[in-house]
Amino acid sequence: MLNEQVIKDIFDSGENKGVSAQELYYQSSKEVNISVFQGEIDKYSISEDGGLSYRAIKDGKMGYTYTERLDNVDGERLVSEALENAKIIEADDPMFIYSGSKAYASLNIFNEAATDRPMADKIAFMLSLEESLLARDPRVKRLAGNSLNEGISEKIIVNSEGLRLSEKSNYCLVYVSVVVEADGDVRTGLGYDVADDFEKISKDKIIDMALSEALSMLGAKPMKSKECPVVMKNTTFAQLMSAFNGLYSAERIHKGLSKFKNKIETQVASEYVNIYDDPHLEKGLATTAFDAEGVATYKKALIQKGVLKTYLYDLKTANIDGVAPTGNASKGSYKGTVGIAPSNVYLGSGEHTFDQIIQSVEDGVYLVNVTGLHAGLNTISGDFSLECYGYVIRDGKISEPTTQITVSGNYFELLMAIEMLGDDLTFTILGSGYVGAPTVKVKALSISGI
């Protein structure tokens, strides 16, 4: 734990060496992982990690270092390492240690009661989950994977400008990947649930999610290639969105690595599109009251009625553009340097039911899964070509399942071609980050089959 004596020793050493501003960033985490196989525990682990990073400004340059040892921190050595690292930095941009925001949100992101749940109950839950899945339908053959992941994390920021912030959070995530088979045709399905307490995880929700898609895809065959209207499942569109979240980063904008450069207050999507970055989202996995530099977070519209409204900023990029920081400075861990990242990003819901959207399509495809996001798309050009599967839509009804097909298009054109949005906003754990979307209907995309 970061105590007052450690803080004083480090800051005193910094002052003695002529440091003008300095910061300590403490982070700790504890994770539990449980998986089962054929009625027995397959994996059981408890891991703990933590450490302290130090940043200091001297002569206008920022130096950085970190230590994993918290029991006997050598403040003088830590400061010396940071200042040595500062000497090799060639960047001329002004660097900042933040003095603090006027107010910070009070968020309910730590459930103390969740830390008292017996480990035996969690193991019993996973064994029961496997047993129930295998017994639900004779076509269920096995679990391809499963896990209960539970985590508790804490972060503290203290600096010489008077800033002192701390925050604890926890989560529980359970998922299963199930394998089903009929007449030699093998399919898989994924089911999961996320909560702030193990006891809130729904076994039935996980089972229904995993089996509904897997079983309905049995007998799927390729379809003929064509360009047609496409309806994307809410979690599938969220996955695709997640791959393009970096487009809003001011750092990428400055480097010319985003097509959103010079597009603020410009129409970049259909008028139905509202995309938000919400670090205060209830039960969001990226919910936080302050970012990695101590800037207060807030909900913001990235795109509103199709118009690009803002980029995501840390202190350095905000200073370059002469705007206020957006609270999106990020560190992967105490070992990492400061970058820019979104929090909980989602495409706002529309007013149509799922059935209404399907009924609006005479001849098209309902896509329920895409794969190869990292290899099959270009985040700069927006072009994508992704293996996928789903269902043929015929005369406003979901028809036979289809697989071994590829969906191709351009993300920026896709945003402009969105015609309908569902009222079923859902978040996914797949892809990059915690991202949500409703069911989405796109005017047309290219489907390659046979």
Describe this structure in words.
It is a single chain. By secondary structure, this protein is an alpha+beta fold. It has two domains: 112-149 and 167-216, PmbA/TldD fold, CATH 3.30.2290; 220-450, no CATH class. The protein is 20% helix and 38% strand. It is built from nine helices and 20 strands. It has helices spanning 4-16, 75-87, 119-136, 203-216, 234-243, 250-254, 315-321, 354-359, 411-416, and strands at residues 21-37, 40-58, 61-67, 140-159, 164-182, 185-195, 226-232, 275-277, 300-304, 307-308, 329-330, 339-340, 344-347, 363-371, 383-394, 397-410, 418-421, 426-428, 434-437, 440-448. The strands form four sheets. A six-stranded antiparallel beta sheet has the order 3-2-1-4-5-6. A six-stranded mixed beta sheet has the order 10-9-8-13-19-18, with helices on one face. Strands 7-14-15-16-20 form a five-stranded mixed β-barrel. α1 packs across α2. The model has no long low-confidence stretch (mean pLDDT 95).
Taking all Cα atoms into account, the compactness measure Rg is: 24 Å
Low-pLDDT residue intervals, each spanning 5 or more residues: none
Apparent shape: globular
Order of helix and strand elements from N to C terminus: HEEEHHEEEHEHHEEEHEEEHEEEHEEEE
Helicity, as a percent range: 10-25%
Tell me what portion of residues adopts beta-strand conformation: 35-45%
Mean pLDDT: 95
Strand order of the largest sheet: 3-2-1-4-5-6
Domain tally: 2
End-to-end distance: 60 Å
Tally of separate helices? 9
